[in-house]
Amino acid sequence: MKTVILLFHPDMDRSLVNRKLIESAGMKRNITIRDMYALERDHQINVDQERQVLEQADRIVLQFPLRWYSAPSLLYKWMQEVFDDYWLHSGPEGSSILQGKELTLTVAYSEPSYDYTADGKYKYTLKQILRNFEVIAMHLGIKYCEPFTVYELDDLDKTAKAYAEMLGKDELPIQPLNDQ
After folding, report:
1. What does pTM read for this prediction?
2. Per its UniProt record, what SUPFAM superfamilies does this chain match (predicted)?
3. Which residues of the chain fall short of a pLDDT of 50?
4. Domains and CATH numbers, the chain
């Protein structure tokens, strides 16, 4: 399985969690890591190159820190430019060119996990906060898999090992639709 990790972290020099995860993932075979902020320093996205990367991958991982309860702005700009409907539906008989691929998220956050519960500080789960990516996966015709979430104070060595193991699986668990 060819996996591409699209890392959308605006400040990897100061990252503890994402840097550790990427180091661990980089030790696996068939994984390509693309640091999007390093590649797109001027925020000019090479759309043709990005589409080619997606077409060659079996699994797409969007990795980012949770900032203001969402993904960094470059990820949204990247999606707006790369996920053009004409390109997306250029598969056989108008099907999605990404049909059958897997999409998962790797999200690091710094607030306690209990804050992201129905009874917690924010009243919403991370799954609910990230719901827009599930809808995007439906539109793209790809499988939306369970996100890999990391609370910043987790045991990073153990978490990085679990991340690498997850990436090495032939198939990831699919996120149940409309699951709270």
Report:
1. 0.92
2. Flavoproteins (SSF52218)
3. none
4. 3-168 (3.40.50.360)
